[in-house]
Structures are given as structure tokens and as C-alpha cells.
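Per your request, structure below.
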């Protein structure tokens, strides 16, 4: 019994030291190590009393020894239960860590929940707002970075049931509009058209439809541009008037109604 007790003491001290040194949660292992240490000391003390008594133990002493042995067994059983519980908690912790990921825009996804703020994307948007339209080359480079973060994150949060911290459709439409304008001014008409379509999809306005018309014309897609023009003009109202003024300003030909 002394040997078993010694093993419990040594293993609890070594195991606890290793656990803490590796940075694992201490609240799980400390109670187990304390219980194991106590069981080891108890067993060694009990063995010491047994040896000193020798073969002249009385019935009372034998009963006391039997009771102490039963208590030691109970402590060991409780220790096994605590070890099993610790294993379960560690498994749950590992599963939790495996399902947690930091998204490109700075938010965090845990299972089917997306939380936090887009701490990586937000500074890009703020810098893009400060550039305006006076520095198209710099704005185009920054827009590509911001759109990349936004779209990669959008793909990675598909299927999530709870999503917080999204920039919203209006900000997304502004990002695509700003990027499409900068791309158009730097001569990248492929991205300009792609982002102009995305801007209209995110939040359609007369200005964004006008931008899409110019992107279509620059790509030689005149038939699609004409169809969009006629659709907007037939809608009538103030927005159609604004749209027609835009076409006249940039000398974009269209069929005028009588």
C-alpha cells in the first residue's frame, strides 16, 4: 500500500506540473491532483500503522484498518470519476477549439454563430473613404483588398444561423461602387463591370445603374447597355429624369421617346 501511495503522490505532482507547464486549464486538473495527493498520503500513513502493529493487531485495530481501506478505495473511485469528467471536459474543449475560426474580415465564427466586429475590414473602408476619387490608382488597390476581405468572409459564413457585425448591404454597395469607379479610371474594365454589377445587386440606385451602363459600354456590351437604359427610362418618374440627365451629360446615345 505504501508503494501505491507513493506512486499516487509522484504521479499527481509530475502530472500536475506538466499540465500547468503546457498552459492547459488549471481548474480541471488541480482538484484531481489534490485528491490523488491526499489518497497517496493516506495510503502511506495507513501502511505505516499496519506495519508498526505487526501480527498483534486487535479486532478493533483490524476493523479500523478495514474501514481505512474502504475509505481509500472510495477515494480512488472518486478520483477515477473526476478523471473521467476531466477527460470529457477536455474533449468538449478540443471540439470547441476545432470549430472556432477567425474570419478574414476580423470576426470570429464558432460553429454556426458569427460574432465580433470586422476589425480588419473596417480600417480598409475608412482609408478608402478618405482617398475619395482624386487618387484612383491608390483607391483601386485599396478597393481590391477590401473587396477580397469582404467576399472571402461572405463565402466562409455561408450556412451560419446567427451572424452579427456584418457591414450591411448599403456599405457593401458603396464599396463596390467606389471600387468600380476606381477600376474604370485605371482602365481595368473587367473588374469595373464585375463590381458595378455587384453594386446594383447589393443596393440598386439610379447612380449605380448609370455606372453599370458605362461599364457595359466600355466592355463593348452595347445591347445589354441599351436594354438597361430602356428599362430605366420606361420606369418614369424623377429617377428616370435623373437617369436621362446622366446619359445626356456623358453623351451616351439612347432612343428618345416622342
Amino acid at each position: 500500500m505504501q508503494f501505491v501511495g507513493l506512486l499516487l503522490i509522484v504521479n499527481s505532482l509530475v502530472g500536475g506540473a506538466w499540465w500547468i507547464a503546457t498552459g492547459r486549464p488549471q481548474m480541471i486538473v488541480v482538484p484531481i491532483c489534490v485528491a490523488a495527493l491526499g489518497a497517496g498520503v493516506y495510503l502511506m500513513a495507513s501502511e505505516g500503522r499496519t506495519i508498526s502493529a505487526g501480527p498483534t493487531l486487535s479486532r478493533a485495530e483490524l476493523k479500523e484498518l478495514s474501514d481505512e481501506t474502504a475509505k481509500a478505495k472510495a477515494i480512488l473511485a472518486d478520483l477515477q470519476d473526476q478523471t473521467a469528467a476531466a477527460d470529457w471536459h477536455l474533449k468538449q474543449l478540443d471540439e470547441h477549439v476545432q470549430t472556432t475560426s477567425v474570419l478574414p474580415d476580423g470576426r470570429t465564427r464558432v460553429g454556426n454563430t458569427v460574432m465580433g466586429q470586422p476589425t480588419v475590414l473596417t480600417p480598409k473602408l475608412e482609408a478608402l473613404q478618405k482617398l475619395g476619387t482624386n487618387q484612383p490608382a491608390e483607391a483601386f488597390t485599396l478597393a481590391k483588398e477590401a473587396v477580397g476581405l469582404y467576399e472571402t468572409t461572405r463565402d466562409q459564413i455561408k450556412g451560419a444561423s446567427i451572424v452579427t457585425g456584418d457591414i450591411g448591404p448599403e456599405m457593401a454597395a458603396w464599396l463596390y461602387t467606389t471600387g468600380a469607379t476606381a477600376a474604370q479610371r485605371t482602365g481595368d474594365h473587367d473588374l469595373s463591370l464585375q463590381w458595378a454589377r455587384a453594386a446594383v445587386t447589393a443596393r440598386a440606385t439610379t447612380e449605380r445603374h448609370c455606372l453599370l451602363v458605362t461599364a457595359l459600354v466600355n466592355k463593348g456590351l452595347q445591347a445589354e447597355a441599351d436594354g438597361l437604359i430602356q428599362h430605366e427610362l420606361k420606369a418614369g418618374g424623377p429617377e428616370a429624369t435623373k437617369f436621362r440627365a446622366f446619359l445626356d451629360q456623358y453623351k451616351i446615345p439612347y432612343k428618345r421617346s416622342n
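The CA atoms of residues 98 and 110 lie 9 Å apart.

Regards,
D.
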